[in-house]
Please model this.
Amino acid sequence: MAPSPAPTTKPAPAQATPPAAAAPSAPNQPPKATEAAPQAVPGFWDPRRRPDRPDLSRLTVIRFLTETDYPPFNFTGPDGNPAGFNVDLARSLCDEIKVTCTIQMRRFETLIDALATNRGDAIIASMAVTPQLRAKVDFTDPYYRAPARFVSRRDNVMPEIRPEYLEGKKVGVIAGTSHEAYLKAMFTDAEIHSYPDNDALRAALRRGEVDFIFGDAISLAFWINGTDSAECCAFSGGPFVESRYFGEGVGIAVRKGNDLLRQSLNWALFRIWEKGRFTDLWLRYFSISPF
Model:
């Protein structure tokens, strides 16, 4: 099973636009709610730093490995074939490189071993870039991350959140996570309430036991937009992406030293983003943006 995106993902700040914030009327007072920002799409590519085109003629096939059951990123489609955001992205990369592409689904914990034993060429499975994994594989540039965000009830939405705005506020978080560590380090004047799991955390917000909850923005986006939330809640403030707490990013893993494939995938990722195809793909899968 894929790792929880919360404590295990993401690099330097994504080029995504958080909701616009009105200037507060007093130093410690939050701004009033403003009109919702347009859908934000993560982008890690600088148009001024176009990667060189590698010798793509040396690639004849890319055998992608992905996770079996981590929707909407990887899952088995109605026709029994691999589906999901990562799968569609892999196919777009192969189209851009103009190379034959295969996609094999495996349990998440077997992916690194399958790559090492040449049962595949690249892992595209929401795999977080960590120092431990960098010792085993090489990674492409990041193509998304799971930022952290606050969620409040709809009648209490704040367009911007700063530590001083949450002084004395009750904030729920899952115990033992990087999100809890971040709150304790940065939001020292908030009243932090820790819960054992997502169900307990979200129920506390619905019941009004806490004013906000803080956690993995991707899973929270699907909860907000799903039936379990009963349309109770919405994001408050923009994304938090500090890599020390929330990771370096999600990249595509290749075998150590496979620079041709890594550089080819980086080139293709940039091209897909430049043409707007990455944005189209993102919006297809994320109706409420984690960013």
In short: The first helix runs from residue 85 to 97.
